[in-house]
Design a protein that fits this description.
Strand 1 and strand 2 form a beta hairpin. This protein is elongated. By secondary structure, the protein is mainly alpha-helical. It has three domains: 90 residues, Fumarase C, Chain B, domain 1 (Orthogonal Bundle), CATH 1.10.275; 252 residues, Fumarase/aspartase (Central domain) (Fumarase C, Chain A, domain 2, Up-down Bundle), CATH 1.20.200; 31 residues, no CATH class. It is built from 15 helices and four strands. The protein is 62% helix and 4% strand.
C-alpha cells in the first residue's frame, strides 16, 4: 500500500512516470532508513506514542529487514515506489498496528532526507579512507623513486627541472586538501532533518527531535523545518562538488600519466597488467584505465551541474524535482570511490625510466641566471645574457 493512498487508483502511466527509478536506487538506502526508523521509533516511545511491546516489535522488524537487505533478500517493488514504503508495508504485514504507527510524526520528506544524510555521512567517511590510501600510495612511490630528476612543464613545454617526488607529491597534497574539504562538509552536515516532517514541523505531538538526532549520531537537529528541506538542494550538490574535486585531482594525474607513458616521452612505464590491447593492432598497449578516470571527472562534473540546476528556481518547501538528484548523487560518489581505488593501484605500479627523465641542459637556464645574480649582476641583465643563448 502506498503511504499517501486514500482510496482510488492512480493512472498506471502516471504511476510509472512518477516512481521512475526510485524503487531501484533506494536499494542502497534500506540500511539507513532502518537506522533512522529505529531512532524515530524510540522517540515515539519516549513521547508515549508507542508501547514497550510495539517498540520491541518495530526494532526487531527493522533488524530483520536490515539483515535481509545485507543478503540481498529485501525486495522493493515498483508498486512500493521507494524503500520507505516497502519497509513500512513489511512492518505492518508482520506486526499490524505497530507497523501502522511507525510513520507517526514524520513525512516521507524528512524520511528520505534523513536516510540520505546517513548514507552521505558514511560515504564521505569511506571517501576519506580511500583518499588516505591513495595518498599513502603516492608517498610510497615518492619514497622509492622520488629522487629521479625529470622535466617540469609550463605551456606544455619543458620549463625547469624538478623531480619525480615533487611532481607526484602534488597529488598527495591535493588529496589531503580534498580530505579537509570532506571534513568541512561532514561538520556542516552534522544536523538531523528528522522531525521537520513535510517541512513545517510536527504539530500537537511532543516528539523530541534532538533525542532522535543524538541516537543517530548527529550533534543536533535542524531547528528550522523549512530549512531542513532546503538542505537537500544545498548538501547533495555540495557532496557532488567534493566528488568533482576528488575527480579533478585524479584527472590531472591521469592526464600526466597518459602523456608521460607515451613512447615519445617514455618517462614512466605502465605495467602490462594495467593496459588493454587493440582488436586490430597486435602491438598496442592502451592506457584505457587512465583515460576512463580522466573522463569520469567530466561525467561527475555534469552530474553536479545537473543537481545544481534542478535545485534552482524552486519555491521553498519540498518539490518532487528533488527526486531527480538522487541518481546523480549516487553516480558521483560511486565514481569518486572506485576511481580512488584504481588510481592507488596504478600509482603503486608505476616504474620511472631514469635515463628518459633526465632534464635537457636548457632547463637549467633559470639556475644559470640566478648564479649570475649571486655574483652581483642584476636579475634583468642576467636574464637577458642567458636568454641570448636561446634566441
Amino acid at each position: 500500500m502506498k503511504l499517501w493512498a486514500k482510496g482510488g487508483d492512480l493512472d498506471k502511466d502516471i504511476e510509472s512516470f512518477t516512481v521512475g527509478e526510485d524503487y531501484l536506487l533506494d536499494r542502497r538506502l534500506v540500511k539507513y532508513d532502518c537506522l533512522a526508523s529505529a531512532a524515530h521509533a524510540r522517540a515515539l516511545r519516549r513521547a508515549g506514542l508507542l508501547s514497550a511491546k510495539e517498540l520491541k516489535d518495530i526494532l526487531a522488524g527493522l533488524k530483520t529487514i536490515s539483515d535481509l537487505d545485507a543478503r540481498g533478500k529485501f525486495v522493493i517493488k515498483r508498486g512500493d515506489e521507494d524503500c520507505h514504503t516497502a519497509i513500512e508495508n513489511w512492518l505492518t504485514a508482520r506486526y499490524g498496528e505497530a507497523g501502522k504507527k511507525v510513520h507517526t510524526g514524520r513525512s516521507r520528506n524528512d524520511q528520505v532526507l534523513t536516510a540520505l544524510r546517513l548514507y552521505e555521512r558514511e560515504a564521505l567517511a569511506e571517501l576519506k579512507t580511500r583518499l588516505a590510501a591513495f595518498g599513502a600510495a603516492v608517498k610510497t612511490l615518492a619514497g622509492k623513486q622520488g629522487r629521479i630528476p625529470m622535466p617540469g612543464y609550463t605551456h606544455t613545454r619543458r620549463a625547469m627541472p624538478t623531480t619525480v617526488g615533487t611532481w607526484i607529491g602534488c597529488f598527495a597534497a591535493a588529496a589531503k586538501d580534498d580530505a579537509r574539504l570532506a571534513d568541512a562538509l561532514l561538520k556542516i552536515m552534522d544536523q538531523s532533518p528528522l522531525g521537520s516532517a513535510a517541512g513545517f514541523g510536527v504539530p500537537v505531538l511532543n516528539i523530541d527531535k534532538n533525542y532522535s538526532a543524538k541516537l543517530m549520531g548527529f550533534s543536533k537537529a535542524i531547528e528550522n523545518p523549512v530549512y531542513a528541506q532546503f538542505t537537500r538542494s544545498k548538501f547533495e550538490p555540495a557532496v557532488m562538488h567534493l566528488c568533482s574535486q576528488v575527480m579533478l585531482t585524479l584527472n590531472k594525474l591521469a592526464s600526466d600519466l597518459v602523456l608521460f607513458s607515451t613512447p615519445e616521452f617514455g618517462f614512466v612505464k605502465l605495467p602490462g597488467k594495467f593496459c588493454t590491447g587493440s582488436s586490430i593492432m597486435p602491438q598496442k598497449k592502451n592506457p584505457d584505465v587512465l583515460e576512463l578516470v580522466r573522463g569520469k571527472y567530466h561525467a561527475v562534473l555534469g552530474e553536479e551541474f545537473k543537481a545544481l540546476s534542478l535545485a534552482g528556481n524552486l519555491i521553498s518547501g519540498y518539490n518532487r524535482d528533488a527526486q531527480l538528484a538522487k541518481g546523480p548523487l549516487f553516480a558521483c560518489l560511486d565514481a569518486a570511490l572506485t576511481s580512488l581505488n584504481i588510481m592507488a593501484t596504478v600509482t603503486a605500479g608505476l616504474e620511472f625510466d631514469r635515463e628518459r627523465c633526465v632534464p635537457a641542459p636548457e632547463l637549467y637556464a633559470t639556475e644559470e641566471a640566478y648564479a649570475l645574480v649571486k655574483g652581483g649582476l642584476p636579475f634583468r641583465d642576467a636574464y637577458r645574457r642567458v636568454g641570448e643563448k636561446f634566441r
